[in-house]
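User: Second chain of the day. Same drill as before.
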Amino acid sequence: MRKFVTIFLVMLVEADRPNFIVFQPDDMPFQWDEAPESPDGKSTVTAPTPNMDRIREEGVVFTRAYTAAPKCAPSRFSVLTGRFASRGVYARQRTGESEDFTLVAVPQTKMQDTDSLDNLQTVLRDDGYQTLHAGKWHLSPTRGTVAYADYEGSVQQVLATGFSSVGGLYMDNMDKSDNLEFSHNQEWVSQEAVSFIADAHANEAPFFLYFNPTQPHAPTTYEALFNYSARQTPEGFLESTPEVDGHTTRSEVWSRAEAANGRRADLAAGVIWADDALGALINKLTALDILDRTFILVIMDHGVIAKDDLYEGGGRIAHFVRYPPAFPSGTTVATLVSNLDIAPTIFSLAGVAPSYDVDGLDWSALAAGQEDTVIATRSHLFMEISYERAVVTATYKYIMKPYGGDDAAASASNQYPAYDAEEQLYDLTTDPTEQ
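Assistant: Same format as last time:
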């Protein structure tokens, strides 16, 4: 079986190089069956997501997937490099010589120096792929109002990391104190992405699209839907309103959110708006007759129950993929996987060998149904955030906090009784909420 699957995957690469879409909304809640339990017993938001559900139903769902770091920028760094954020050049340069651990945090996680070459988009671009970033970036040093003062300059910074095109760019988070003249604008980001897909297809080139909706992260989705126009963007005021097949009206997004969640409608609206964007991508791929040639991976950047912490509510993520030529539909995989594994998996399916070392493993054969693989025998994963580190196995999790808990950064410190303990060990089979 192993030899057959390996030969099959090689034949796929040689016959027709796949396109790749990595779809990663910002701060999306975990609303599917494999989600970790919440310590307070409260359920997360439940939003109708027909397009994400389609990817799940027609693809492979990984039920024990983790982020390498439960924070926006470090998580994205690991997706694009296949390496821990603590190995980033920018982070190591900003860690004091007296410190035992590299600080893993948003300000320290940037794609600079050799990391702007040793990454997924550069390797694919240099091997004939057209590569696009659309949506949130968060991996360059410029932040706040400075990040939005010069849109073209920001685009050039992202292009310098290996993308051949950049559109619908949000360089950083949007804080109210910045007094920006725009907010979330999913129609604009989607329009840029579908135009890129059409251009790549017209050029008969395979493509890689890194698609990052900015919501449901703050500011509120309600504010974006009703207080801003779809013509207001970081690039400036558009000449016309974006019209993208797959997007409903903004009022319809809110109505669907209210019907599903009532008082928690704002969070649901962000998820629904992102799901509409995925629908727009699917519609374009279908119209071009390349949907089944396109690998579509939907992932969370981190958990939201315990964002910025190494507990299950921060580290566990939704992670599901559709690629009919290689992966059987409607299947689940319980093997431990990390977002570190995404880059090596895409390298494998694209038939390219990176020129640098990665920390992740290729799960393509595992998703194709092959059980006798290196990743299938993986016994543990590592996670990191701030100066804290964790090891997770199928049964246990060990957390080390050399300086105790960071209450200022924690989103859920009151939910974990041993939060401030320097060493913590949990049996996840009997104590899934780490109490």
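The CA atoms of residues 381 and 392 lie 5 Å apart.

User: Great, on to the next one.
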